[in-house]
Amino acid sequence: MRRDPRVTAFIDGRAPFARPILRHLRKVIHAGGGAELEEDIKWGMPAFVHHGKIVCGLGAFKAHCALWFRDGKAVVGDKPAAAMGQFGRITSVDDLPPAATIEAYVAKAIQRIDASSSIGAQQLAGKTQRRRSTARV
User: Fold this and answer.
1) How far apart are CA 76 and CA 63, in angstroms?
2) Are 32 and 103 in contact, with CB atoms under 8 Å apart?
3) For residue range 35-79, what is the model confidence (pLDDT) as tens digits?
């Protein structure tokens, strides 16, 4: 787990209502993501990255926060109609599902990244092997 000081600065610079939400989410995301999960800033907001691929991200706005997942529908399911992310407008920690549920979503998102990386590597290996077998001598 690598914490990025820019994420700390982002959280500290948000509205007072948002700070406890963002700190809680940061802690829970790290708990679900394990040692290889890294923090970054993407599009001006905190993102959590696994092997260079975004797992999830946080947003903070005037009156609400947001948590979103890469391939969110596959990870979390259908989202509320309002607001960015899969959990609608988050205005307090009470608006969030239990920590264990978020940790499970993080783990699922990481598994999907690992699976897609594995499939991509297999496809690349297959293309390379096909090129060799069809190459002219």
Assistant:
1) 23
2) yes
3) 889 999 999 999 999 999 999 999 999 999 999 999 888 899 876
